[in-house]
UniProtKB/TrEMBL annotation:
Keywords: Repeat
Protein name as it appears in the record: DC1 domain-containing protein
Gene3D superfamilies assigned to the protein according to its UniProt record, in alphabetical order: 3.30.60.20
Residues of the DC1 domain: 10-55, 65-111
């Protein structure tokens, strides 16, 4: 087996994860979204599998929007309702998210892909838009 066909991953310590092809009703144990196609599953036979993209998330992440602390990828408790502080949507219980231990700031791993630099939009051509962690009251804060 080639080295890239199996990995060791902090989310499932003690067991090697093997690249497999999934068809049917499977759920990623990191993001809790549907899992189809190529992914990593437990080589020891546990019911554990994660997307290739989820396996690529680093254990720590420096978010320019949340300075000066680094965020740590942790698994949420199964009895806790947690909201992402970036997109304001819920985090699935038992899923993984980035958390700032000193502040309690929470962020979905998928939200790390959101643009932090200014972007131009045809929907609002008057000026550039930037991602903000504060939800405005239904209008552009600059207009």
């Amino acid at each position: 087996m080639a080295a890239h066909d199996s990995i060791s991953h902090f989310s499932h310590p003690g067991h090697e994860l093997v690249k497999r092809h999934y068809i049917g009703s499977f759920r990623c144990d990191m993001c809790w979204e549907n899992l189809t196609g190529a992914a990593y599953g437990c080589g020891a036979g546990c019911d554990f599998a994660i997307h290739e993209s989820c396996a690529a998330h680093p254990q720590t992440y420096f978010c320019p929007a949340h300075q000066p602390h680094s965020l740590v990828l942790v698994q949420t408790r199964h009895d806790a309702a947690i909201i992402c502080d970036v997109c304001k949507s819920g985090c699935a219980t038992g899923s993984f998210l980035y958390r700032c231990p000193p502040c309690g700031f929470n962020m979905h791993p998928r939200c790390t892909a959101l643009p932090l630099a200014a972007v131009r939009s045809s929907w609002h051509p008057e000026h550039d838009l930037t991602l903000t962690l504060v939800v405005p009251e239904g209008r552009c804060s600059a207009c």
